[in-house]
Amino acid sequence: MQQTTFKEHGIHYRNWPISGDARAVVLIVHGLGEHCERYDTFASALNTAGYAVAGLDLPGHGQSDGRRGHIDRFSEYGDAVLSLYKKTSTAYPGLPVFLLGHSMGGLISTQLLLSHQDKFAGALLSGPAIQSPQQPPAFQVAVIKLIAALFPKLGVLTLDASGISRDPVVVEDYMHDPLVNKGKLSARLLVEMFKAMEECKADADRVTLPIRIMHGGRDDMTSPEGSELLNSRVGSKDKELRIYSGLMHEILNEPEGPEITEEIIAWIDGH
């Protein structure tokens, strides 16, 4: 599989092109703390099915510039994805573009769709961070908001990533990946995430493009109930929700990942 990478304005981009004419393009938006290189296997399967793939390391992630575990405005993530879209549209003029977001990338994608869904032929969300079992209780959220106002870059929370997959090799690789941020998340990042979650839940009816929402039933990092709520509120007539019983957070990196990838390809084929 041919790959190209480049860095521009502090953002690391990765393309997985195919030889010959692509049927469409899939943009990957990764989750909190990780990076786009973790999607190589998934991108390879999409390439085999005739789809070009593009991704990026979000600001403050992977090989992109920015403070790890911190963002001033959540919209900075969406701006970076829009930049990826523009570059991809230039490279593949006229081709339909599908958006795939995982975890926080699913939240970023959902927020982006509220204003820019006209750019995409469809969206796929994997374990979107609409609600989180690891979200602090209300009184702690109030404290975090106060800290964010006074000391926005102060680290206040570390995520437990041991539940990303039932495959111990996946967990081991994640924990030893030097490009994965396993440090504390800043107060400002958490507050910005909470605000984005509330916005997406409140305005989900504005999303009307074809959408497929997927979640592991045993996910303890983002809540399956959040995906159920989002699915119930989006305005799309063409929508599908799949809760995979027994699967954990990274459904593409679960033992059933290859089958789920085939389902995703079939959905894109149909749209």
Lay out the secondary structure:
Blueprint lengths: L3 E5 L2 E6 L7 E6 L10 H9 L2 E7 L17 H17 L5 E6 L1 H13 L5 E5 L11 H13 L4 E3 L10 H8 L9 E2 H17 L7 E6 L7 H10 L5 E6 L12 H13 L2
Parallel strand pairs: 3-4, 3-5, 5-6, 6-9, 9-10
Antiparallel strand pairs: 1-2, 2-4, 7-8
Helix pairs in contact: 2-3, 3-6, 4-6
Question: Radius of gyration, Cα only, in angstroms?
Answer: 17 Å
Give start-end ranges of low-pLDDT stretches.
Answer: none
**Can you identify the CATH superfamily?**
Alpha/Beta hydrolase fold, catalytic domain
Calculate the terminal CA-CA distance, rounded to whole Å. 25 Å
- Characterize the main sheet: 8 strands, mixed
Coarse morphology: globular
> Which strand order do you get reading across the main beta sheet?
1-2-4-3-5-6-9-10
Bin the strand percentage: 15-25%
Number of helices: 8
Structural class designation: alpha/beta
H/E element sequence: EEEHEHEHEHEHEHEHEH
The CATH architecture classification is 3-Layer(aba) Sandwich
CATH C-level name:
Alpha Beta
Helix content: 25-40%
- The count of β-strands is 10
Number of domains: 1
CATH topology: Rossmann fold
**Average pLDDT reading:** 94
Structure, explained:
This protein is an alpha/beta fold. The protein has one domain: 3-Layer(aba) Sandwich (Rossmann fold). 37% of the residues lie in helices and 19% in strands. The protein contains 8 helices and 10 strands. It has helices at 40-48, 75-91, 104-116, 138-150, 168-175, 187-203, 224-233, 257-269, and strands at 4-8, 11-16, 24-29, 51-57, 97-102, 122-126, 155-157, 185-186, 211-216, 239-244. Strand 3 (24-29), helix 1 and strand 4 form a beta-alpha-beta unit. Helix 2 crosses helix 3 (104-116), helix 3 (104-116) crosses helix 6 and helix 4 (138-150) crosses helix 6. It starts with a strand and ends with a helix. The relative contact order is 0.15. The mean pLDDT is 94.
